[in-house]
Amino acid sequence: MTSASSIKKILVIRFRRVGDAVLGTALCTSLRKTFPDAEIHYLLNTHIAPLYIGHPDIDQVINFDNADDRHFFRYVRRVWAIVRANKYDVIIDMRGTVRTLLFSLFSLQTAFRIGTKKSYSFLALNYPVDNRGDKSSNMLHHNLEFLKPLEKITQVQYSEDFKLYVSAEEKEKYRTYMEQSGIDFSKPVILAVVSARLAHKVWDKEKMKIILQRIIEKYAGVQIVFNFVAAEKAFAIAIHEEMSKHPKIFTNVEANSLRDLCALSANCNFFFGNEGGARHLAQALDVPSFAIFPPKISKARWLPHQGERFAGISPDDFCSKSEQKAMSYEERFKLITPDRVWGQLDPMLNKHL
Description:
By secondary structure, this protein is an alpha/beta fold. The protein has helices spanning about 20-35, 65-70, 70-85, 100-105, 140-145, 170-180, 205-220, 235-240, 260-265, 275-285, 300, 320-325, 330-335, 340-350; strands at about 10-15, 40-45, 60-65, 90-95, 110-115, 125-130, 190-195, 225, 250, 270-275, 290, 310-315. It starts with 8 loop residues before the first strand and ends with a helix.
C-alpha cells in the first residue's frame, strides 16, 4: 500500500505559457511542504524553462522544445524515455490533453496518476479531478485541486505562494546595465508594458499615453521602463516618440530573455500595464503591480491575492457579464477609461513609490 513515506519522485506537467507555469509553482511548493524528501520534476516548454532555475521547490526542470512537440513519434519516444528513467510515484497532469495523458498511460504502475477529468481521461488516470466547472475560482485554487487525491495518504500542506527567484548576482548585474542605460536608482522605477503579444489585448494607445503622462507629472523623478519583446518593439517606440521622446521614459533597457525580465522586474519599484506574462513574473517576484485586463480575460481568475499590493482593472468591474453579452469587444474594452484607471492606480503609486 502506498504511504506518504513511499513518495520519492513526483512529475508535474504544465506546458503552455508563462502565466500558467508561474501560477503552477504554488502546486510545487505545496508538494515540497507535503513530501519534503521527494524529488519534484516540472515539465515545461523549453522557452519558459529558464524561469525556474534555482527554484527551491523544483529539483529538475524537464523541457520540450518545438521539435519535440511537432513530431509525434519523437514526442512519444521522449515521453517513454522520461517515465521509464524516473519511475514516478505521482504524476500530476495540469495540462490534461491527449498528448500529456501519455505520461500517465506509459506509467500505469504509478500509484497516483492525477489530472483533469475529461471524457477520455479514464484511459490513463486513476484519480481524475473535476476542477473545470467553477470558473469563478482563481487559477491557484483550480491548480491546488489536483492535490486532493493525495489526502488519501497524508495531510496535504496547501500553499498559495507562487514565486520566482533571482540571484543576488543576476540582480546586481542587470542593475549595473540599467545604470549604464541611464537609470538613477535614487529615484523610483516603474516597469511598464504598453503592448501585448496579441494586438486585441492591448489597451487603447491614446488612453495609455494619458496615464503615462499623469504618472510623469505627479511623481517627480519617476522613470518608466518600457518592456517589450522583439515583435512589440516598434509599437512601444512609437508611443515614446508620440510622447516627444520624454526623457523619463526608457526604451533602451531591453530584457532579451525571461531571466533578464526577472532581473529587470526585481530592480523596479512597481509594475503597470497590460495583463500578461510580465505581470505574473512581477507578482511572483513580489513587485507591486497594477494590470489592465482586456475583455474575456477574467481578473478574478488570473489575479490571485488581489489587494493593496496586487490589483487590476477589468470591464467586469463596471458591467455584469450578462450585460456585456450584448456589447461588442471594443465596447467592453472602452469601459476601462483613463479616469477609472487613475482612480485605482494613483493610490497604489502613492503607497509604493
